[in-house]
Amino acid sequence: MTALTVIYALFLWWFSTGAILFVISRPAPTDMEAFRKAVILAVPILSLGAAGILISLEDQTVQGAFIAFTAALLVWGWFEMAFLAGVITGPEVRPRPPDLPAGERFLRAWGAIAHSEMALVMTAAVLAIASVGASNRVAILTFLVLFFARISAKLNVYFGVPNINDEFLPGPVRHLTSHFRRAPMNAFFPWSVTALTFATACWAERAWAAPEGSGAEVGYVLLATLTALAVFEHWMMVLSLPDAALWRWLLPSPTPNSTDIKPDS
User: How far apart are CA 18 and CA 119, in angstroms?
Assistant: First the structure.
């Protein structure tokens, strides 16, 4: 059961990421109407995810754990798609000018993603309220893992890391690359990886302690796998491994964009 659960989490992570990248790579870079239409057409997926979360709240079975995990990823995936499509991003849509003071650079970077982050915070708050007293909290925990891993990843590319897969950013959010920084390392990276690794170990310990074959065991294995994937994605920022190849075959041939991010800019 554990091995199958891990495989399911890995496949869903890979497939959902690939599906989002496939959809947002179809429109022309400047065709905002097409991007908006894609996000609107995906609203049923958001609704399905929300329904799945509600259905699973009192379901402590193995099925309930899988439904909660999958539903949370559907909700998360819709917001991620809306972000990459430029529908929910932030008020700052201009590339960052060079040589800004640190404070202004941070404010501009925050302005570029503010609406998206606030939408995710509000969604997390709604899920947390709905999960109060619920017997199955896999959905809210899954969403929180994704949220904190996202914040950590964004801070790392802001502070500076060697490897940034900016090739997947479509036209509506290409300006975000001006807020990224290539650097050998940053002081935040060790802390973020340590925290995610510790969280992975905590989920794994809880899975080990849960009754074998129970919904609790499956839920914690799913959470441990997802958090371990976040650790993997963080390490890919500093290791020269072709992780982008996992999804590149789904996409049109990328246009050169290596000049978007300047070293130590």
Answer: 23
Asked, for residue 253, whether it belongs to a domain, the answer is: no
Quick check: 122 and 192 in contact, CB under 8 A? Answer: no
Angle between helices 138-159 and 62-84 (to 10 degrees): 30
- For the record, the structure tokens of 207 come out as 């899975």
Does residue 112 fall inside a structural domain?
Answer: yes
Single-letter amino acid code for the residue at 116: S
Q: What angle do the packed helices 62-84 and 32-41 form, to 10 degrees?
A: 160
Query: How many independent structural domains does the chain possess?
Result: 1
> DSSP letter at 42?
T
Do 18 and 10 contact (CB within 8 A), yes or no? Answer: no
Domain of residue 37 covers 2-248
User: Mind listing the pLDDT tens digit for each residue in 112-166?
Assistant: 999 999 999 999 999 999 999 999 999 999 999 999 999 999 999 999 999 887 7
Split at pLDDT 50, 70, 90, the class of 248 is low
